[in-house]
């Protein structure tokens, strides 16, 4: 099993969610995040003052999938989230050693399907 973590622009959350639903991915955790990467923040103007926002708003998606589906899910998320602009985000994959569905006691792939 694999954990897919994606840090994306908030504006692409709905298209990504719809793309995952079409693919049959049911379990997704979404949290608000703030960060910076290549874009290194941004400059804004407010009431005649200039200030720098070092960390920009992002969303963090976490999706646990089977080893067989990981590449397709990553490609699907990347395709749905791509705007072609700086700040589109990052996706990474890590190993998951075990999963337990609390309600039923199912483990492994059965717990995520």
Description:
By secondary structure, the protein is an alpha+beta fold. A hairpin with a 2-residue loop joins strand 3 and strand 4 (49-53). The protein contains 3 helices and 6 strands; from the N terminus they run βαββββαβα. The N and C termini lie close together (11 Å). The model has no long low-confidence stretch (mean pLDDT 92). Helix 1 (13-23) runs antiparallel to helix 2. It is elongated. Pfam families: P-II. This is P-II family nitrogen regulator. InterPro entries: N-reg_PII, N-reg_PII-like_a/b, N-reg_PII/ATP_PRibTrfase_C, N-reg_PII_CS.
- Major β-sheet, in short? 4 strands, antiparallel
Please state the CA-atom Rg, rounded to the nearest Å.
17 Å
Beginning-to-end CA distance, first to last residue: 11 Å
Order of strands, widest sheet: 2-5-1-6
The number of helical runs is: 3
Q: Provide mean pLDDT, rounded.
A: 92
Helix % is 10-25%
Number of strands: 6
- The computed structural class is alpha+beta
Instruction: State the low-pLDDT regions, or none.
Output: none
Concise description?
This protein is of the alpha+beta class and 113 residues long.
Write the layout of secondary structure elements.
Elements: E1 2-8, H1 13-23, E2 29-35, E3 42-46, E4 49-53, E5 56-65, H2 70-81, E6 89-95, H3 109-112
Antiparallel strand pairs: 1-5, 1-6, 2-5, 3-4
Helix pairs in contact: 1-2
Which tags fit this structure?
about 110 residues; alpha+beta; four-stranded antiparallel beta sheet; about 25% helix; elongated
């Amino acid at each position: 099993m694999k954990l897919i973590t994606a840090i994306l622009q908030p504006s692409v959350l709905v298209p990504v969610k719809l793309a995952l639903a079409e693919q049959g991915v049911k379990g997704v955790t979404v949290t608000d995040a703030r960060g910076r990467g290549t874009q290194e923040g941004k400059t804004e103007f407010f009431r005649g003052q200039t200030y720098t926002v070092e960390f920009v708003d992002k969303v963090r998606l976490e999706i646990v999938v089977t080893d067989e589906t990981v590449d397709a899910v990553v490609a699907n998320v990347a395709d749905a989230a791509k705007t072609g602009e700086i700040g589109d985000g990052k996706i990474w994959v890590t190993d998951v050693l075990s999963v337990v569905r609390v309600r039923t006691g199912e483990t492994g792939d059965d717990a995520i399907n």
